[in-house]
Specification:
Strand order of the largest sheet: 2-3-1-4-6-5
Order of helices and strands: EHEEHEHEEH
CATH architecture of the largest domain: 2-Layer Sandwich
CATH topology of the largest domain: VC0802-like
Mean pLDDT: 92
Number of strands: 6
Helix content: 25-40%
């Protein structure tokens, strides 16, 4: 299933992630998933939220820069090897490149959720039976 992810560019210094999270709280935006990658000077917070429009507005009001990206959300067995067998192996066999991924567990569920940025969304959806 397609999902809209927001990538927020943050200076790599104390308090910048807190600034983003406070902007979401003030905007009544619920954070569902978060991944932060960094370099020496800046970081990218990739987020999945309950209301993309409200989140983008909150980000702009906080003076931050963001971009939206279409990603793939796939449910996976919450068990050893679940991600590899249910998602990564089928995509690799089909020649779909996974640019990055992160996962989270939905509370009370036997499945986890993987968020994937792939080079061919349509093909990935076909392979995973998500169309």
């Amino acid at each position: 299933m397609k999902e809209t992810q927001i990538s927020v560019f943050l200076e790599n210094r104390p308090g910048r992630l807190l600034h983003l999270l406070e902007a979401f709280a003030d905007g009544k935006v619920n954070l569902r998933a978060l991944s932060v990658a960094d370099t020496a000077d800046f970081g990218i917070a990739r987020v999945i939220v309950d209301d993309v429009e409200a989140a983008v507005q909150a980000i702009r009001q906080a003076g931050l820069t963001a971009a939206t990206t279409e990603v793939l959300r796939a449910e996976i067995p919450n068990a050893p090897g679940g991600l590899a067998e249910a998602v990564i192996r089928p995509l690799a066999r089909a020649g779909v490149n996974v640019e990055y991924t992160y996962a989270y567990n939905k509370g009370g569920s036997e499945n986890a959720v993987a968020v994937l940025k792939v080079d061919d969304m349509e093909k990935a959806q076909q392979v995973l039976g998500e169309e």
